[in-house]
Amino acid sequence: MELDQATKVWIVDKHVEKNVENLQSCTQIVDAAALLRSGEVVAFPTETVYGLGANALSDESVEKIFLAKGRPSDNPLIVHIGERNQLPTVARHIPEKGNRLMEAFWPGPLTIILPKTDQVASLVTAGLDSVGVRMPDHKIALALLKEADVPIAAPSANRSGRPSPTTAAHVLADLDGRIAGVLDGGPTGVGVESTVIDVTVDPPIILRPGGVTREELEAVIGHVELDPSFEVGAVETPRAPGMKYTHYAPEGEMWLVTGEADKVRRQQADMLREAKRNGLRTGVLATEESADFWGGFAEADVVLSVGSTARLDEVAQQLYAALRQFDEEKVQYIVSETFSREGLGMAVMNRLEKAAGGRVLSV
């Protein structure tokens, strides 16, 4: 595969969405779908982040995802479908709890681990007997998937380890010249990736927290377990994306500090002072509640607020863009606020811990 190809950009703005009766007939969608069917890789928006898609039934096509991203091949991919009738192509059996979750949350930010068929490319599942499947809740993504008429394997459309992309500009910053095209549908909504739940076991296990919370899942199917990989520093064979390796990371060294609020603030301030003494450009990932304090702290060169602790949906939506902005500002050392693990906070904290590469200090 050539990694210096010209990357085509198709813009599907709100005007197009509102004025094309059948979005599948939009020339941008038709052209992008044709490239997918021909074996190329194309980035597209979903309600979570931008995905990098390839034909999930072709190892040759899926290999291009790994080459473009620089992604380890033992990290499985999620298969995206546009209609439920595509499921038998990728899943040989759907447990009863899986059906209930689909009825409740599809289309939406929920990936369900199912027993795979032999038609799924081996590179998609990293040698596992199961496959993660989801139906995104995004008009452009659904139109593309229906027009392509093949299941599409699609991890986030970024270089491996980098913060996930929530705009087409983020995709191009990482992958311009490495992929065939990108559908620009504007900023994404949820901001963090889908929740991944394994229903091949009982009780089901959350392998990655995301846009659907544990509480919402349990309201539909009862008790669900949390995978041991959520423990900081845990190393296991990955059964879903984001379970291994440093993910979502800015280029600067990032630290989380947990404990009593006053002690945390003093510790963060000491860490920033030390970093400045060492000649580093510093940053703080702040909240609305703490932004004024850090804005007046001389040793904090860049202070970015990701929203209020009372609105974790807002925090999730803005998190990756903030991490990328630290890179644009050439920040070398970052301290971050932490959040409650209730509801969507579990997904936010999971991403922050991955972004910090396990650098968590308790005081």
UniProtKB/TrEMBL annotation:
L-threonine binds at residues 48, 80, 134, 154, 194. One of its GO terms (biological process) is regulation of translational fidelity. The keyword Cell division does not apply. This is Threonylcarbamoyl-AMP synthase. Belongs to the SUA5 family. PANTHER family: SUA5 (PTHR17490), THREONYLCARBAMOYL-AMP SYNTHASE (PTHR17490:SF16). Its EC number is 2.7.7.87. One of its GO terms (molecular function) is L-threonylcarbamoyladenylate synthase. Required for the formation of a threonylcarbamoyl group on adenosine at position 37 (t(6)A37) in tRNAs that read codons beginning with adenine. InterPro entries: DHBP_synth_RibB-like_a/b_dom, Sua5-like_dom, Sua5/YwlC_C, Sua5_C, T(6)A37_SUA5, TC-AMP_synthase_SUA5. It comes from Brevibacillus invocatus. The keyword Coiled coil does not apply. It is an enzyme of class 2 (transferase). Keywords: ATP-binding, Cytoplasm, Nucleotide-binding, Nucleotidyltransferase, Transferase, tRNA processing. It is found in: Cytoplasm. GO terms for cellular component: cytoplasm. Residues 26-212 form the YrdC-like domain. ATP binds at residues 71, 75, 156, 164, 208, 248. It catalyses: L-threonine + hydrogencarbonate + ATP = L-threonylcarbamoyladenylate + diphosphate + H2O.
